[in-house]
Amino acid sequence: MGLLCNARIFEFLTITSLILISSSPAKSSGEKPTAYDVLQDYNFPMGILPKGVTGYDLDESTGKFSAYMDGSCSFSIEGSYKLNYKSTINGYISKGKLSSLQGVKVKILFLWVDIVEVDRRGDDLEFSVGIASAGFSIDNFEESPQCGCGFNCVNGQPVIFA
């Protein structure tokens, strides 16, 4: 009876292990993580980049990075902020900090200004335009906005409220 019980336990563990291994979404060793994955590795939510990033370069020794999109990207969020991303975004990344940013602008009133730094402070992100900064909850960046329509999209098109 003990031998039969041990055989059943072994069979159960083997089947369970195979199910867990086959259902794991593990990346192959040669597969490069996405730019969104890298952001999360550095303690940033993926939503600080819009959808459509096609690739990136990262020098892990210095933190210097470039992220690429097929074209520039603009959208409005919360009805008051308009953002513009160039097709190439450059800067330096470290745990909880993006610095020396190039290629990201925000429209404040009637003036476009560069976002030069983003700091993670607990559950907030602090965006700096050099002379001023503003903080927002990371909850606002759980998903990536879409070029052209931000978060107000249906099938990739802006939703117009009448």
Categorize the overall geometry.
globular
Major beta-sheet overview: 9 strands, antiparallel
Count of beta strands: 11
Strand content: 35-45%
Query: Do you know the CATH architecture?
Result: Roll
- Helical content class: 10-25%
Let me know the CATH homologous superfamily.
At5g01610-like
Descriptive notes:
The chain is α+β, with helices and mostly antiparallel strands and 162 residues long. The protein has one domain (44-158): at5g01610, DUF538 DOMAIN (Roll), CATH 2.30.240. Helices cover 18% and strands 41% of the residues. The protein has helices at 2-23, 35-41; strands spanning 53-59, 64-69, 73-77, 81-94, 97-108, 111-114, 117-121, 124-128, 133-137, 153-154, 157-158. Strands 1, 2, 3, 4, 5, 6, 7, 8 and 9 form a nine-stranded antiparallel β-sheet that branches. It has a two-stranded antiparallel sheet with strand order 10-11.
Produce the secondary structure layout.
Blueprint: H1 2-23, H2 35-41, E1 53-59, E2 64-69, E3 73-77, E4 81-94, E5 97-108, E6 111-114, E7 117-121, E8 124-128, E9 133-137, E10 153-154, E11 157-158
Antiparallel strand pairs: 1-2, 2-4, 3-4, 4-5, 5-6, 5-7, 7-8, 8-9, 10-11
Keywords: Signal
Signal peptide: 1-30
Protein name: DUF538 domain-containing protein
Index terms:
single chain; 162 residues; alpha+beta; at5g01610, DUF538 DOMAIN; two-stranded antiparallel ribbon; 2 helices; globular; disordered N terminus
In short:
With 162 residues, this protein is an alpha+beta fold. It has helices at 2-23, 35-41; strands at residues 53-59, 64-69, 73-77, 81-94, 97-108, 111-114, 117-121, 124-128, 133-137, 153-154, 157-158.
